[in-house]
Amino acid sequence: MNMLVRNPWNLLDQWHNEMGQLLNTPAGRDDTSLVEGSDWSPAVDIKEEDERFLIHADIPGVSADDIEVSMDQGVLTIKGERKHESTESGKDYKRLERSHGVFIRRFSLPDTVNADNISASSQDGVLEIVLPKSAPQMPRRIEVNS
């Protein structure tokens, strides 16, 4: 196998890309969906439609059996693990770039989500979570007894 010549500027380019992502986060707003203790974090898109919210998470290489989606007190948690074969101290590897290990993302959900009907599926490395909206509650008058 031919070895690639190492380019010392690659690390600077990587740092530049990471700083660009950091600076693209709106000022004063931390991404509270990122959980300390995660080895990596899948990219997530959240879309609101008339009848539902959709969450798409990029998790290539993660089996549906290794993904857990749960809902507790208005917080949706996506948790899983991308397993990695043993490298025996890098034996036979010329480069290791893909993230592996445990990931956890948490999202606070609006009261309009119908928590009883949330569904999730995984296909082609994309996790899709469907969060249907509840029917809006109409205001009602409460009688005051004397």
Description:
The protein starts with 8 loop residues before the first helix and ends in a 14-residue tail after the last strand. The strands form two sheets. A four-stranded antiparallel sheet has the order 1-2-7-6, with no helix packed on it. A three-stranded antiparallel sheet has the order 3-4-5, with no helix packed on it. It is built from one helix and seven strands. It is mainly beta. The chain has a domain of 84 residues: Immunoglobulin-like.
Q: Can you describe this structure in just a few lines?
A:
This protein is mainly β and 146 residues long. The chain is 10% helix and 32% strand.
Poorly predicted parts: none
CATH fold name of the domain at 38-83 and 99-136, please? Answer: Immunoglobulin-like
In total, how many beta strands?
Answer: 7
> Helix-strand pattern, N to C?
HEEEEEEE
Structural class per helix/strand content? mainly beta
Number of helices: 1
The CATH architecture category of the domain at 38-83 and 99-136 equals: Sandwich
Tell me the strand order in the biggest sheet: 1-2-7-6
Computed over alpha carbons, the radius of gyration is 21 Å
Instruction: State the helicity in percent bands.
Output: 10-25%
Q: Give the N-to-C terminal Cα separation.
A: 88 Å
Shape: elongated
Fraction of residues in β-strands: 25-35%
CATH class placement of the domain at 38-83 and 99-136: Mainly Beta
Largest sheet geometry: 4 strands, antiparallel
